[in-house]
Design a protein that fits this description.
The complex is a heterotrimer of chains A (234), B (643) and C (252). Chain A has nine helices and two strands. Chain A is mostly helical. In chain A, strands 1-2 form a two-stranded antiparallel sheet. In chain A, strand 1 and strand 2 form a beta hairpin. The radius of gyration of chain A is 20 Å and the shape is globular. Chain C has two domains: 109 residues, Ubiquitin-like (UB roll) (Roll); 129 residues, Alpha-helical ferredoxin (Fumarate Reductase Iron-sulfur Protein, Chain B, domain 2). Chain C contains eight helices and seven strands, in the order ββαβββββααααααα. Chain C has a five-stranded mixed sheet. Chain C has a two-stranded antiparallel sheet with strand order 6-7. Chain C starts with a strand and ends in a 6-residue tail after the last helix. The chains are: A mainly alpha (234), B alpha+beta (643), C alpha+beta (252).
């Protein structure tokens, strides 16, 4: 084995992969959330569709999208592999455990939360991404188009409005976002710890920012389907 | 007369002369020489690491699950070294003199001077290994003072100095394990020494996991197995600390030196009930800032015992700070034997406190007022926490209750200057030998001796013997001597298991401990010792008829381990009593009530300035005493005064 | 006080184990937990039954030999203490106490509550040391060390190697143990020359012993009898990353 694969397959290396991909996914969430938050301009989707058009056509962004998918897959595969390895490290379990006495439930439930997010993600991608990127291929219905100025763009906004009319979809989205929130509350500061950033002066701030970030971003995400369903955004 | 082989010449040049003239073993021959080390405390671990580094083939054994568990780890306060970093007048000579005087002039000059000489190297070595000694803000090493000294020469790592020193030695040992120079056998207990043609040639060890008996050959065998304080059942020793290795050596011909010298440490947490399994020491360093007192009046003491008064109710003028009163120049830092006896006297005078009346106060209120709580917390935080854990009392608010407890045994296998016992090829290092502390050990000197023996003495002195062994090929372990010895061990294990009596091993251990504490503890009398000997003999007979040991020999069996150890403790107890009876004087840890002057111990230098080295003559026969005359060429014998 | 005990009994590594119920009556609240087990064992021996095997030695919380997973907690319910420092006053009268061995692939059971922790020795042997052979040392005060670093090193060096971190971790990870040693030595100038080699070798050995990865739940820190901080784990991560990625040292 060469040095890099030795590093990547060590217990710390695996965690570093989780941390790096995790932080990368967090940066994606920021972008994703910012773009989607355009709907709150309540301008009939104009700003949002414009931004979505840019995201869907810019070469750099489209390249990063591939990187993003690789990141997600790596995060998921590595996560499950780690989880399996960690379970194998204790072949016989305890009869009585009292984990609440020493750690937070969400820090111990990252695989479960991650799995819930994965299930949500499958649905979420099939709702939006497949239609906007793969519309017309293999029987996937393409999106309508709309005019912004003199440009013809995909009307992703209309798809959003129609998707979130269903109460079931709304509830599933909100549950998905809650899972994400807990996943982030642990994951954010955990990523810094794994990368070796633990400092008497800064770690409390990192932990605080992590919590605020997780709540803020998830609240914004949850507000989107909710406002649409409630008709606050038309 | 025994020959201690102290090199000739002026005291300060003996060790240098020795090192310059001792025979050497060349590197290629070292690879062919095998050394067995039993015990992995400071002495054993440091010896194993160093001999491994030198290129010898080393096998190291410990009964614990890891070498790092050995009881040196529990030493709290510190390690002495004549560095004179404080510029307070310390020197090699002063450390030597303090140690000789502290030992009540019953230690060998040559050994003690060597100890003081190498003490500075120990600190250097430990710092190089990464031992995190306490430091000052300038980044240099900090020191504190300890009992029996008027200079600050004690290096420390919080209240965990023993732990840190042992971990340093353990890491050195594990490094050699990783390099393949040392083979480690944990969860193995040595149960006998194999001698061939009068020389130690190996051991029989029991694998404690499988119960199997194993034979191991060595050109030399080093016992680094600690002291025998657990003969008293209750002591500050670890539960597993035992005399077995030293005792088997004694029975194979090694003489046992000064077995009656027992150190009773003055600052331990008092006994709280008869279920008690061990006593916990509060470091002597506490006496730097703590003041020892009992009420002046018996009435106040009684009121405290009955819970009618609290210590804080006793006014300053009604307190007797008896150490400061009796020993003004050393005060609360009087040596251990003296402080312990003073506590006993106060309690015998019915001025003891605590429910049992067997406790005195160690009070920090003055220091807290003077320095602030945070300073005291920084200095002793973990010790205070430990006290609070055990007693459920807060020592920042109420004074600690303390009482003397058995802590260390100055006696041990007799060794010469080279640390060799009377069996050629068999060495004893650290607390296991008798050599450096005389009749009383000063605080922070045990760590010093263990590491001196292991790092700096044995690596030189063993060459003197092994240089003559380079032509001895490894003896195969099917040699009749190995077979014979293993058979002997197997028989005694089988015997213990076959008795199937009615009383547990612990029952006998507790009985033995009570006899030893009552008759051979802090104060001894000829009459009491005579009785005690009969009692121990009776106990031994009963043990071998009525003990109940459960389980089998060929499995993990802690009950059997304990039985083997207690069997040896009972025999040792008798020897201690014999030795205490024969020594008609009071010195250091050996206080004979008949020999005192104005309440202070009265030594008899004319008749007893010798080491009593006992030779085994059969369990039912009297042991034979051999004397080693203690010759003082430099020091003038004086009455020990701390007043 | 009276307590009921549910104790894991297992004759040896090969045989299956099971829980057995016992009762200890008239326990004194000032008894240590291990003294309570002593009382139980004494009564078992008196009945001709085999006593419960458990590891213990110094009984003052420093040797690291005692273990036991008590009511779902490594070293029992009290913070910052080992099993031997646990007193019966931490339990209530009539309570049922479940006692199990530490469980981890790296800590196979030997008998009853006794487990084999020699994996820790092997991790130290792989690199948990400073290669300073006897006799090579310079004067102890030749290199001043800032008090801050010396104190941090001492904090990490306080580890007693008991394995509670492994026992408490849901992943049976030994990161706190390994990080404490790596930190202790990396914080001192004497440990600097070998720091990269040390981090790589110790982590490789830790992985080979079958311990899990750290998922930063910090259960280890909460259960550590010596309060070793997880800041050490971050330091180990840093040391390892430095060694594996930045330095020219080759990982093994």
């Amino acid at each position: 084995m060469n040095w890099f694969s030795t590093f990547l397959t060590s217990s710390i290396g695996r965690k570093v992969v989780m941390a790096v991909t995790g932080l990368f996914l967090i940066s994606f969430l920021i972008v994703h959330c910012t773009i989607n938050a355009m709907i709150f301009f309540n301008d009939g989707g104009e700003s949002f569709n414009k931004a979505a058009h840019f995201m869907g056509t810019n070469v750099i962004i489209r390249t990063m999208e591939i990187v993003l998918f690789l990141g997600i897959i790596l995060h998921i595969v590595q996560g499950f592999m780690l989880s399996a390895k960690n379970r194998a490290a204790r072949p016989t379990g305890y009869a009585v455990t009292n984990p609440g006495a020493n750690s937070k439930w969400y820090s111990r439930s990252m695989t479960l939360l991650g799995t819930l997010i994965l299930l949500f993600l499958v649905m979420h991608i099939s709702h939006f991404w497949t239609h906007s990127r793969l519309g017309g291929i293999g029987g996937i219905s393409p999106l309508d188009e709309t005019m912004i100025g003199d440009k013809e763009v995909l009307n992703l906004y209309a798809l959003m409005i129609s998707t979130f009319q269903s109460p079931v979809v709304l509830i599933v989205y909100i549950l998905g976002v809650i899972s994400l929130c807990w996943h982030l509350v642990h994951g954010f500061q955990s990523a810094f710890q794994t990368l070796g950033v633990n400092h008497k002066k800064y770690t409390p701030a990192i932990k605080g920012i992590g919590i605020v970030f997780s709540i803020l971003i998830c609240a914004l995400f949850a507000a989107m389907p909710l406002s649409i369903y409630m008709g606050w955004i038309a | 007369m025994l020959d201690s082989k102290i090199p000739a010449g002026p005291l300060s040049e003996k060790w240098t002369t020795y090192k310059n003239t001792v025979k050497l073993v060349n590197p290629s021959n070292k690879r062919k020489l095998e050394i067995i080390i039993v015990g992995t405390g400071l002495a054993g671990a440091s010896a194993a690491a160093t001999l491994g580094e030198l290129g010898y083939k080393v096998k190291v054994f410990c009964f614990q699950d890891s070498p790092r568990r050995a009881h040196s780890i529990a030493a709290q306060g510190g390690i002495n070294a004549a560095k004179n970093y404080k510029n307070d007048g310390d020197s090699t000579y002063r450390l030597f003199y303090d140690t000789i005087k502290g030992g009540d002039f019953r230690a060998r000059e040559g050994n003690v001077y060597r100890l003081a000489e190498v003490s500075a190297n120990i600190i250097d070595q430990c710092v190089a290994q990464g031992v995190p000694f306490a430091r000052e803000y300038g980044g240099l090493l900090d020191n504190r003072s300890f009992g029996g000294a008027q200079v600050s020469r004690t290096f420390y790592a919080r209240g965990q100095t023993g732990q840190q020193l042992l971990i340093g030695a353990y890491q050195g040992l594990e490094r050699q394990v990783g390099l393949g120079n040392v083979q480690e056998f944990s969860r193995h207990e040595m149960l006998d020494i194999v001698t061939i043609d009068g020389k130690a040639r190996g051991i029989i060890a029991r694998n404690l996991v499988t119960g199997e008996l194993e034979r191991h050959f060595g050109h030399a065998v080093l016992l680094c197995t600690g002291g025998y304080g657990n003969v008293f059942y209750l002591s500050t020793n670890a539960m597993g600390s035992n005399v077995t290795a030293a005792w088997k050596a004694y029975k194979r011909g090694a003489f046992f030196g000064n077995p009656c010298y027992t150190q009773i440490h003055p600052t331990c947490i008092p006994v709280s009930g008869d279920y008690q399994s061990k006593l916990t020491l509060m470091s002597e360093s506490l006496r730097n800032d703590g003041r020892v007192w009992v009420p002046k009046s018996r009435e106040d003491a009684k009121a405290i015992r009955e819970g009618r008064k609290k210590p804080t109710d006793i006014a300053e003028e009604d307190r007797d700070y008896y150490l400061e009163r009796k020993y003004p120049s050393y005060g609360n830092l009087a040596p251990r034997d003296i402080s312990s006896r003073a506590a006993k006297e106060a309690c015998d005078d019915q001025r003891g406190v605590g429910e049992s009346g067997l406790a005195v106060y160690l009070d920090f209120s003055a220091a807290i007022n003077r320095l602030g709580k945070h300073v005291i917390e920084e200095r002793y935080g973990n010790l205070f926490d430990m006290y609070a854990h055990i007693t459920a009392e807060n020592p920042y608010e109420v004074p600690m209750r303390i009482y003397p407890a058995v802590h260390y045994t100055m006696g041990g296998l007799w060794v010469d200057y080279e640390l060799m016992t009377t069996v050629p090829g068999l060495y004893a290092l650290g607390e296991c030998n008798f050599s450096d502390h005389g009749a009383n050990r000063l605080g922070a000197s045990a760590l010093m001796q263990g590491l001196a023996d292991g790092y700096f003495v044995i690596p030189y002195t063993i060459g003197s013997y092994l240089a003559g062994e380079i032509f001895t090929k490894a003896i195969p372990t099917d040699h009749p001597a190995f077979e014979e010895t293993e058979k002997h061990v197997r028989e005694s294990l089988d015997k213990l298991l076959s008795i199937q009596g009615t009383k547990s091993v612990d029952h006998y251990h507790k009985e033995l401990g009570k006899i030893m504490w009552d008759y051979c503890g802090m104060a001894r009398t000829a009459e009491g010792l005579k009785q005690a000997r009969e009692m121990v003999k009776k106990l031994r007979a009963e043990f071998w008829q009525n003990v109940r040991v459960t389980g089998k020999a060929n499995e993990f069996n802690q009950d059997l381990e304990k039985a083997m150890r207690v069997a040896d403790f009972i025999e040792l107890g008798e020897l201690m009593i014999v030795d205490a009876y024969e020594r008609n004087e009071s010195c250091g840890g050996h206080f004979r009530t008949e020999f005192q002057e104005e309440g202070e111990a009265k030594r008899n230098d004319d008749e007893y300035a010798y080491v009593a080295a006992w030779e085994f003559r059969g369990v039912d026969n009297d042991p034979a005493m051999h004397k080693e005359e203690l010759k003082y060429e430099t020091v003038k014998l004086a009455t020990r005064s701390y007043k | 006080m009276n307590v009921k005990l549910r104790i894991w009994r297992q004759r040896n590594a090969q045989e299956q184990g099971k829980f057995v119920d016992y009762a200890v009556n008239d326990a004194n609240p000032n008894m240590s937990f291990l003294e309570m087990i002593d009382v139980l064992n004494e009564s078992l021996v008196n009945k001709g039954e085999e006593p419960v095997a458990f590891d213990h030695d110094c009984r003052e919380g420093i040797c690291g030999m005692c273990s036991m997973y008590i009511n779902g907690r490594a070293h029992g319910p009290q913070k910052l203490s080992t099993t031997c420092q646990l007193y019966m006053r931490n339990f209530s009268d009539g309570e049922t106490i479940t006692i199990e061995p530490f469980r981890a692939k790296g800590f196979p059971v030997i008998r009853d509550l006794v487990v084999d922790r020699s994996a820790f020795d092997r991790i130290i042997a792989a690199g948990g040391f400073i290669s300073a052979s006897t006799g090579q040392a310079q004067d102890a005060n030749a290199i001043p060390i800032s008090k801050t670093n010396a104190d941090l090193a001492m904090d990490a060096a306080a580890c007693i190697g008991c394995g509670a971190c492994v026992a408490a971790c849901k992943n049976a990870s030994a990161m706190l143990f390994v990080s404490a040693k790596v930190s202790h030595l990396a914080l001192l100038p004497q440990g600097d020359p070998e720091r990269r080699k040390r981090a790589l070798a110790m982590v490789a050995q830790m992985d080979a012993e079958g311990f899990g990865s750290c998922t930063n739940t910090y259960a280890c820190e909460a259960e550590c009898p010596k309060g070793i901080s997880v800041a050490n784990i971050a330091r180990l991560n840093r040391e390892y990353l430095n060694a594996a990625i930045v330095s020219e040292e080759m990982p093994k």
